[in-house]
Amino acid sequence: MASPSSPPPSADTPVRAFPAGGGASLRWRRLEVPGARALILVLGGRGEPLEKYAEVERELVARGLEPWNLEWRGQGGSDRAPGLEGLGHVETFATYLDDLRAFVDGAVAPAADGRPVAILAHSMGGHTALRYLAADPHPGIARAVLVAPMLRLRTGAPPWLVPLVARWQVALRRGRRPARRERAPGGLAGNPWTRDHARLQRNLAFVRDNPALAATLPTWGWLAAALRSIDALLAPGVLEAVRVPVLAVLPGADRIVDNTVARRELPRVPDVRIVEVPGAEHELLMELDAARALFWTAFDAFLG
């Protein structure tokens, strides 16, 4: 198993630019693996730069898979909305869906050359992947592994209140303002992301050394868009329309997304396997080795 303190596996791998809608440029990179049995599209969560998944990329390469890592617009080094460089903002999640569809159709699928394409997606990436798979995915997409997929956000407020406040803020033309205060980077105690001190410090150090790639605060507009997108995903007939096999891996102690909703709604997907990793926090792929080993065991059994 790779050490979390080891250097990025792809420091010499060029980060590329993909031309997306509206003239935006999205960062992505490909670790070319001669003879790879499949391509795998890596989709991070909200605010995550692609470099955060360097360790995961190494582990995918070791499995004979070729990672294609896409960074969502509005975060990392992908284009951000003018005047909102310090904030994560979209007016609608249709923007993410359009970007994902364009990237698969225009870059990933042509390079697959008949090989299957899998998806490995975390949190917001898992949510967006599910919406994509339920709509009109490229026929080359064969399987999807979703880690802590965002089917409901845990905000600490009553579920009925958050949409009302978000819509109210947008109606008052505050949609481009941050929806919460900045959190000071902390240590292991109390963080809702991972129990692994080494991986947490690695990620904090990376952002400290590369401030331009730092996670951005979500805006009220982003939150309102996320809640609308969750409603769209959970509407009758949507999850039932997903036609590829799905593995959903839920961190047992997740404090960011609501596992209760995931357990209730994901069985609507016709071919789904749900695995829960006890005690794990939201960023399961950045967790303690024992928790990550349970994830990789499920992953290997699913992809074969």
Topology:
Layout: E1 16-19, E2 25-30, E3 38-43, H1 54-62, E4 65-70, E5 87-88, H2 94-112, E6 117-122, H3 124-135, E7 141-147, H4 161-171, H5 197-209, E8 217-218, H6 220-234, E9 246-251, H7 259-265, E10 272-277, H8 289-303
Parallel strand pairs: 3-4, 3-6, 5-8, 6-7, 7-9, 9-10
Antiparallel strand pairs: 1-2, 2-4
Share of residues in strands: 15-25%
* Contiguous runs where pLDDT drops below 50 for at least 5 residues: 5-11
Strand order of the largest sheet: 1-2-4-3-6-7-9-10
Q: Helix/strand/pairing class, anyone? A: alpha/beta
Brief overview:
By secondary structure, the chain is an alpha/beta fold. It is built from eight helices and ten strands. It has helices at residues 54-62, 94-112, 124-135, 161-171, 197-209, 220-234, 259-265, 289-303; strands at residues 16-19, 25-30, 38-43, 65-70, 87-88, 117-122, 141-147, 217-218, 246-251, 272-277.
Please, could you describe this protein's structure?
This protein has 304 residues and is an alpha/beta fold. The protein has a single domain, classed as Alpha/Beta hydrolase fold, catalytic domain (Rossmann fold), CATH 3.40.50. It is built from 8 helices and 10 strands. It has helices at 54-62, 94-112, 124-135, 161-171, 197-209, 220-234, 259-265, 289-303; strands at 16-19, 25-30, 38-43, 65-70, 87-88, 117-122, 141-147, 217-218, 246-251, 272-277. α4 (161-171) crosses α6. The longest helix has 19 residues, at 94-112. The radius of gyration is 18 Å and the shape is globular. The model is unreliable at 5-11 (pLDDT under 50).
